[in-house]
Amino acid sequence: MKTILFTLALFALPLHADEASAILARVDAARNPLPSFSVDVELTSTSATSTESSKFHVYGKGSDRSIVEFIAPATEKGKYLLMLRDAMWIYMPSASRPIRISPLQRLMGQASNGDVARTNFAIDYNPTSVASEGNTWVLDLVAKDPSIAYARVRLWVDKTTSEPSRADFYVVSGKLIKRAHYYDQGRRVEIEDLLRPGNKTQMKYANLAARQNPEKMFTKDSLGKW
Amino acid sequence: MVNALVLAVTLRVFGSAGAESQLTPANTASPLNPNNVAQIPLATNVSDATAFLDATPEDHAWKLHLKLRADSSDRGSDHGQIGEAYLQINPTPWLDITAGRMIEKWGTGYAWNPTAFIGPRKNPTDPGDRRSSYRGIDTIKTDVFIKGTNVSLYVMQHQTFAVRVYRLIANTDVSLHVFRDRSGTQQGISVARVFGDSLELHGEIARRRAVIGAQYTFPHNINVVAELYRGGDGLTQRQWTSFVALASQDIRGANNVYAPLRMGRNYEFIRVDVPFSRNDLELIAITNARDGSSIARATFSRKMTSRMSVYVIDTEFFGRAKSEFAYIQIRRATTFGARVYF
């Protein structure tokens, strides 16, 4: 009996890993339906004392390249953010050159650069387990690379649509610091700062469209010049 | 056809306008300014406006870019300037050609850029160029993108050429720079790399000049930059001693020679930036490594609305007698300013 249970367990482990990976791939496919695209993003950051809004155009190609163009407020207009995998640069008209920045340098509010520009869990994380909660899969993800902003993510995924409904973000110490809720088929995301209760950022995506973004657009030297 | 082209072109206009009042009490203890012989005014009022215009069609086949600037001062004449004006065409996915006036900034350093052979010289006390005063160079530039490598070729007036080759290697920005004019050839290399979430290291080296630095982002977006700079074109100890002697004999001659932040060869720089709510506090300190004299600048700014910010900047100078910043002709500089963005 013990031998049978042990053998079944051996066969069960790989199946769970494959299933988790497949689910994760479907999540990313649902959230990134176009290989080359543009989308408008509006960020609203609220705290107990203030509300700030920003608007961006985001241009993406593949799963690991994106450019964020700052549209509003006026103080930010003309800036660009480039992300290539884990490398980031920001371009400001006053500086006239791209500056290398680290993931923690925040875009605004609760959405760090990594949150806004990075959308592909399958590229950055390995699933370690998957569980079922009613109509939802719950995946535990571990970052593949120590340079990734969040070392661990717990992701809730709708079984029918493969859309995420919630994600908990943990830093390397194991502390839970952010929680994201996904609505309207991922077109609206709300991020809570669990270190500062009451602080939230809402991201709204609109006008997602296919767009031919050339490779040279995603180079540091092209920032601000295309 | 022209109407259709016009309708298909996106025009972006953005920029800022600002006004400042600067108080600069004379430093009569400076050997260069006894009894305020340099006639430094106590107060100066300046204003400026900068507009950026970008026009490009939907397919980005070309781009027209302008940077227009105007400034005025109650102590001088008014100026208008075309800071940038260029046309860029993108005939192939791997080739861009640009002609006109453009600001090209090379290097990875924050306060100094030894490899900035064709760019405007940076002021380490104002690395961000808050009044957008930089003016570009007139050039024809060709950018070639080959499998992750960017090669930029510049042709300028008077048989002047420049080349920059950039590649991201093992998550490290690596650029090689070459500049040639009638007086000879200069070469340089700049690098930058991010480690983990928060640390960025960078460095540049060119003939006789080098900078090495680090940038670290702490929680709550507090950012610290530290750099060490070596400028072989600064004064040696012997040359500084000669300057000190000159200042005691020929004030006018010494004033002509005196150039703060170039009177030594080694400098240390630190910047701390603390954003909080709608406010930002920035502290910059630059120290002459030879004599320990320093410039310290504190800036407090506040975003009043999404389009307007106000700020106060205070710059102080510290140094014992016969040190570089003891010769500064002003005791301090205090600036009150406001800027509107559009």
Structure report:
The complex is a heterodimer of chains A (226) and B (342). Chain A is an alpha+beta fold and 226 residues long. Chain A has a single domain, classed as Clam (outer membrane lipoprotein receptor (LolB), chain A). Helices cover 17% and strands 46% of the residues of chain A. Chain A has helices spanning 2-31, 113-117, 121-124, and strands spanning 36-46, 51-61, 65-72, 80-84, 87-91, 98-101, 106-108, 111-112, 125-133, 136-143, 152-158, 164-170, 176-183, 188-193, 200-210. In chain A, the strands form 2 sheets. A 13-stranded antiparallel sheet of chain A has the order 6-5-4-3-2-1-15-14-13-12-11-10-9. A two-stranded antiparallel sheet of chain A has the order 7-8. In chain A, a hairpin with a 2-residue loop joins strand 7 and strand 8. The radius of gyration of chain A is 19 Å and the shape is globular. With 342 residues, chain B is mainly beta. Chain B is built from 3 helices and 18 strands. Chain B has helices at residues 2-8, 237-249, 251-257; strands at residues 9-23, 43-57, 62-73, 79-92, 95-102, 137-146, 149-156, 160-169, 172-181, 184-195, 199-206, 209-217, 223-231, 266-276, 279-288, 294-303, 308-318, 332-341. Chain B has an 18-stranded antiparallel β-barrel. In chain B, a hairpin with a 5-residue loop joins strand 15 (279-288) and strand 16 (294-303). In chain B, helix 2 (237-249) runs antiparallel to helix 3 (251-257). Chain B is globular, with a radius of gyration of 22 Å. Chain B starts with a helix and ends with a strand. The model of chain B is unreliable at 1-5 (pLDDT under 50). Chains A and B meet through loops of A and strand 10 and strand 11 of B.
